[in-house]
Amino acid sequence: MQSKGARGPAMAPPESARAIADEVRLMGGIRRGDSLALEALYDRHARRVYALCVRMLRDPAEAEEVTQEVFWEIWRRADRYEASRGAPLSYLLNLARSRTLDRLRRDRRREDLRLRAGLEPGWLPNHAASGPRAEDDAIGAEQRLAIGRALRSLPAAQRRAVMLAFFDGLTHREIASALDAPLGTVKTRIRKGLLRLRNSLLSQYRKEEIEP
Amino acid sequence: MSGDDRRDDVLLYASGALDESERRDVERYLAEGGPRAAGELAEAEATLAHLALGLDPLEPPARVKQRLFERVADARPRLLRLRRPAARPRPRIVRVARIGLAGAAAASLIWLVAYSTLTARVGGLEQALVQQAASLDLMTAAVDSPEVKMIELDGPALRHRGVVRMVQNWQTGECYLFARGLRPPRHDHSYRLWFTGMDGELVAGGTLRPDRDGDFSIHTRLPRDVDLGAPVVITLEPDHEQPGAGPSGSPQLVGEYHL
User: Fold this and answer.
1) Running DSSP on this structure, what letter comes out for residue B197?
2) B82 to chain A nearest CA, in Å?
3) Exposure winner among A46, A88, A141, B165, fewest CB in 10 A?
4) Separation in Å, CA of B192 to nearest CA in chain A
């Protein structure tokens, strides 16, 4: 495993550089009011945004609303995206997570989530339209495997704390309460879990770069 | 605190899991940290995005896309209206134009009434009178409309005290361009008007051939999908240029919208 402070290239989603450049161009088009650019971005990534929203909200109807809101915000506020801050896909997914957290907090569904906190992430509920499309590219499947490997490499307690923080938007204090663990322990688990996850992903991508 | 600790804190900050005081510390660092801090934040956000990429993609129902694009289509004209400065005083040029048009309308009416008295027997005079009045009404209404924008173009093609103004009606797509005091184009050349399309490409808007005094006017339509936030340009182009070719000359006049 890499040391905590290992320096590496800024990590971007494992798309090709060309795909990222294409998406940066699409964001430029959206900024100029080109709805075809928005449609192209939607067609590429709506499934990822929707999957994240469904996983976090556990409610497909609400996930539809948030997905629409996220792309609407991209349309209205495309000028907020800065290419120097990372790939458009990272921006899109972080925006989706942020808006979903807003919704979760607004809907006061914390209690319900806490009840479910003991569940190991099953990732997705049953859904009529679930599953990758037939044409889903091999890179997508590979990256999910890589991320799954990275998550499985975390000790169970760290993994659970990270999942609760990321997908359920619970604060340290709320996670401590949900897991019935001391606050300091929860903080340490999240910190170590996220850092280990980052280093594990970095090391996997570097290995892929070395071994084509 | 070491650089590595900072980098770790930025990751925790991006995850939203920091307490208030820790969050403020990191925000201060990000505000002052320059490109290095920005890079660390980008890396942290990418790490978190990877967690989402671990999910199997899910196809959203078709209605999500349909509603989104209905909203986009509905909002377009409204956005244009919103971009109009709310309480800005009407520019002097518009006030002058209104007074001028009203004066011209009155003068035309007087002239036409006098003319009709003198030549009452001339057929079709009444019809001409109605048409003239309607045309002046239309122009006055256009200048008064909130959907109308007037832009002034400036550049080396203008003589001293020359002026080129364009009046556009964003609702109807009509566009009037008036030029006074344009320098005569070089032999076998003419001025050409260009709008900027949504894709950033220039779209031809017409050819301008001023008379000996450098005066010219054109009534045309805005191209579809024109970017109303981008400049309008007039270039000098050779007459033998193929129709449909892009601009080859340097900009002679440029006008920008003041939204």
Assistant:
1) B
2) 13
3) A141
4) 24
Is pTM beyond 0.80? Reply is no
Half-sphere exposure of B50 (CA within 13 A, CB side): 31
Specify burial of residue B76 (Cβ count, 10 A radius: 0-12, 13-18, 19+): exposed
B56 and A34: CB-CB below 8 Å? no
Residue-wise pLDDT tens digits, A71-91:
999 998 888 887 766 788 888
Closest residue of chain B to A121, computed from CA coordinates:
B55
Residue of A47, A94, A195 lying closest to B60 (CB–CB) = A47
Q: Note the pLDDT tens digit of each residue in A18-49.
A: 777 888 888 988 888 888 999 999 999 999 99
Of the residues B19, B20, B51, B202, the best mutation for testing chain A's interface (the one with the most A CB atoms within 10 Å of its CB) is B51
Contact criterion met (CB < 8 Å) for B17 and A86: no
What whole-number distance in Å separates Cα of residue B9 and Cα of residue B11? 5
Asked if A184 and A72 count as a contact pair (C-beta separation under 8 A), the reply is no
Residue A94 at interface with chain B, using a CB cutoff of 8 Å: yes
Helix (H) or strand (E) holding A112: helix A110-116
* Residues A162 and A175 sit within 8 Å (Cβ to Cβ): no
Q: How far apart are CA B252 and CA B229, in angstroms?
A: 19
Task: Kindly calculate the radius of gyration of chain B based on its CA atoms and give it in whole angstroms.
Answer: 28
Query: Which helix (H) or strand (E) is B207 found in, with range?
Result: strand B202-208
- Rg over alpha carbons for chain A, rounded to the nearest Å, is 18
pLDDT digits (tens, 9 = 90+) for B36-47: 787 888 778 878
Task: List all residues of chain A from 136 to 195 with a beta carbon under 8 Å from chain B.
Answer: 136, 140, 143-144, 147-148, 150-151, 162, 165-167, 169, 171-172, 187, 190-191, 194-195
Considering only A88-92, A94-98, A125-129, A154-158, which range has the smallest mean pLDDT? A125-129
At residue A46, what is the residue type? A
**Bridge-based pairing state of the strands B148-153 and B158-169:** antiparallel
The helix (H) or strand (E) run that includes residue B174 is strand B174-182
A63 CB neighbours in chain B (<8 A) are: 60
ipTM of the complex: 0.76
